[in-house]
Amino acid sequence: MTKIDLFFKKNLDSSVLFICILVSFLLIFSNDSQRIQNIRSTTLDTFSFLYKPFNWLDNQIFLTKKLEVLSHENLKLNLENQILSSNKIENERLRNLLKFRKRNELNFIGADILSKGVNSNMSSVLLNRGLVDGVDNNSAVLSSRGVVGKIVFVSDDHSGVQLVSDVNFRLSIKIIPSETEGIMRWIKSDICEVVEVQTTSDVQIGDVILTSNLSLYFPPNLPVGEVISIYKESNSSNKVIRMKLFSDLSILNQLFIVDKEG
Amino acid sequence: MGFNFSGYLFIAIILQLMFAELLTINGFQPNIMLLFIILSSISMESASRATIIGFLIGLFSDLILFSGFYLGLSSLVFSICAYFASQVSSNFAYRNFDLYWLSLVFLGTGLYSFFRYDFFFFNDILFFLKNWFSIALYTFFVGFILTRILGVKQSVLEDA
């Protein structure tokens, strides 16, 4: 006992550092435990007021620019809507004719970004919607243009989103019109890579990428991005596809969470 | 006038939140809390005290400042950087103040990047280095301005 005491006294600084490193690693490796999740949820709900002034300031400073972008987007979507409305009527008529099953309509929960995360590189955002608003863990999250991530933790009033730009994020997708399936992962800024694509698949530059029917958490046919380049990996029988996300991750403001209950 | 710990901590939190919400460049932001831990630890005589403070501020960053998904990452990086920062002698700190905190910021952001971009470290080292250097350079730039404006060097060296 005395030897241990003496050792700690002689190496107090190194021992404290060792203990701090050990505890930090223990915390890192128990991030998935329910207790840690509960602690995080409680502290987020309690201290979320810290972000509000900066969020308000951000809205004030960039309000004009945001309005300009939204007006432009609104006009574009209005024009697209005209075409889609007529296509929808035709599509529904044909589906009825062929006795197809009715598709489930999705409901969304609108949310504001409360914080972009104090992380050196943005890979997560905090939303002002939580369990009381009907948000569930692993729900898909979209911007007005397409998929941006999924919910990874929920507290009563807030929820955290793992963005597509997180290095650990993977998404099962399909490429339209060939219905080729693959796995998407982020590369840089708004560029992603689709892997596990068969060489024989007929994919062209400009093809649209949607969420596939295979994902556990993402409903099928949500817009993701478009193909920008295709190449074949040496020593592999698969193609690699580069794609550009529809959503601009650098200017996220309002997001929409897919309501699983709805 | 010594190093006012609580005053500078308050400024660091406000600046970190401000940079996170308003001043990200291409998704990158400077790590002000890391900078604060390094500068405050230089003046501390006891390395164990500096390490524990680094650990606690790291936990605070992870829990309250919502620094991503890994609870414990900031405490790991901050305690290591605080330990090394507190080891410096006052003479050395006086002569090489900027070089010392720059090296520790470089080490700290490197550790952060290693845990955040471990996938790229093993698969695309250039991309990993780009991320690391971008965060480090942005922190250097902001650090240079802040240490000059707030007169941090004088406060730290008076205490050291």
Account of the 3D structure:
The complex is a heterodimer of chains A (262) and B (160). Chain A is of the alpha+beta class and 262 residues long. Chain A is built from five helices and twelve strands. Chain A has helices spanning 2-10, 12-29, 34-47, 52-61, 63-97, and strands spanning 108-115, 124-127, 140-142, 147-154, 159-163, 170-176, 180-188, 191-198, 208-211, 223-232, 238-245, 254-258. In chain A, a hairpin with a 4-residue loop joins β3 and β4. With 160 residues, chain B is mainly α. Chain B has one domain. Chain B has nine helices and no strands. In chain B, α2 (32-42) runs antiparallel to α3 (47-63). The longest helix of chain B has 25 residues, at 125-149. The interface between A and B is large, with 50 and 52 residues.
Give the structure's gist in a few sentences:
The complex is a heterodimer of chains A (262) and B (160). By secondary structure, chain A is of the alpha+beta class.
Hey, roughly how much beta strand do the residues of chain A contain? 25-35%
What is the CATH third-level topology name of the largest domain in chain A? Thrombin, subunit H
- What is the overall shape of chain A? globular
Multimeric state: heterodimer
Into how many domains do the coordinates of chain B divide? Answer: 1
Secondary-structure content class of chain A: alpha+beta
Estimated radius of gyration of chain A: 23 Å
Largest interface, chains and sizes: A-B, 50 and 52 residues
- For the record, the count of structural domains of chain A works out to 3
Helix content of chain B: over 70%
How many strands appear in the DSSP assignment of chain A? 12
Radius of gyration of chain B: 15 Å
Could you report the average pLDDT of chain A, rounded to the nearest whole number? 81
Q: Strand order, biggest sheet of chain A?
A: 1-2-5-4-3-12
Overall pLDDT of chain B: 81
User: Which residues of chain A sit in consecutive blocks of at least 5 with pLDDT less than 50?
Assistant: none
